[in-house]
Inverse folding.
């Protein structure tokens, strides 16, 4: 039983690495590859639940490499620190910089380096960088985020309880702790400046799109097209599995092209930010957020060409067009009385 579990883990590790090698983003390929190796090497034991999670992850990576929007966007969020382990690492780095420590001194497995409440739940002073990032995110509130929006900078603590008495200190500490936990879950940590600039260039098309590596050809040729299977095999499957395989042809799958990838990179860039160091001694960082997903969403429209303007020669503004139409008999402004059949 142990030998079979080890073989299953080895096959799943190879399947995960193979699926990660076909991702259309170079940084995502490198990050997901290292994450897979780290998880398998540091696994304490192999359990059926972990094997089940590995199969689900392999299926997600395969769908992302095939061009499905939601799985690929989820992989990009993980790689660029919008969710998952890397987001926690970026939060640890932010808290470590506020505490005056280097990021190497903070263990990634221990959560945030600086706890904003003491052992009695009393409110500590908010770190400078964290406070500036929190205020900036409240002002911007990037659209399209899977995380809930931050509604305030401080918890709403009532002065009195329902009995008209002063609110106990223990309840105040619990409200503050709950507010801080919710805020830490909704905050979007800043990216390194070099990575933020690269993501911006990918989203705007400055860096040309590099297609994913070519896939290895199957060992044996098959006459069955993708998504199809022999009729007897299809009948032997359970109903829920047969319907799931039959619906795979209708999923949101795209061909991985430059325009498709720029749209996804733009969504990730819109949820990203960077903290630029201040030039003076004011310790006020400049926080820059990613732009909109397209130039049209930012309100920038391309000017018409000469051939397009030839179609509107002789026409003025909207009021002049309406008068011109009335003069030429193109617009009927008279009321048409329909015959009343009841008379």
């Amino acid at each position: 039983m142990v030998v079979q579990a080890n073989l299953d883990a080895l096959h799943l590790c190879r399947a995960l690495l193979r699926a990660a090698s076909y991702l259309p983003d170079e940084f995502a390929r490198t990050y997901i590859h290292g994450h897979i190796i780290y998880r398998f090497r540091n696994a304490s034991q192999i359990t059926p639940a972990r094997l089940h999670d590995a199969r689900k992850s392999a299926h997600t990576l395969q769908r992302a490499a095939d061009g499905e929007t939601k799985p690929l966007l989820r992989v990009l969020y993980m790689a660029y620190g919008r969710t998952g382990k890397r987001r926690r690492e970026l939060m640890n780095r932010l808290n470590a910089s506020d505490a005056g420590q280097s990021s190497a001194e903070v263990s990634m497995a221990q959560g945030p380096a600086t706890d904003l409440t003491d052992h009695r739940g009393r409110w500590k002073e908010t770190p400078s960088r964290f406070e500036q990032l929190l205020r900036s995110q409240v002002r911007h509130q990037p659209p399209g985020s899977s995380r809930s929006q931050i509604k305030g900078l401080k918890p709403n603590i009532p002065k009195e309880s329902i009995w008209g008495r002063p609110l106990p200190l223990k309840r105040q500490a619990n409200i503050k702790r709950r507010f801080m936990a919710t805020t830490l879950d909704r905050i979007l940590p800043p990216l390194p400046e070099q990575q933020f600039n690269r993501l911006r260039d990918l989203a705007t098309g400055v860096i040309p799109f590099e297609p994913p590596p070519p896939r290895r050809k199957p060992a044996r040729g098959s006459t069955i097209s993708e998504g199809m299977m022999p009729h007897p095999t299809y009948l032997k499957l359970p109903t829920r599995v047969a319907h799931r395989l039959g619906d795979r042809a209708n999923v949101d799958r795209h061909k991985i092209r430059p325009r498709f990838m720029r749209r996804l990179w733009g969504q990730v860039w819109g949820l990203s930010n960077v903290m630029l160091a201040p030039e003076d001694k004011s310790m006020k960082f400049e926080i820059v957020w990613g732009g909109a997903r397209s130039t049209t969403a930012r309100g920038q429209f391309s000017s018409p060409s000469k051939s397009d303007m030839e179609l509107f020669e002789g026409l003025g503004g909207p009021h002049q067009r309406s008068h011109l139409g009335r003069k030429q008999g193109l617009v009927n402004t008279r009321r048409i009385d329909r015959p009343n059949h009841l008379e």
Observations:
- The chain is about 50% helix and 0% strand.
- The longest helix spans residues 2-20.
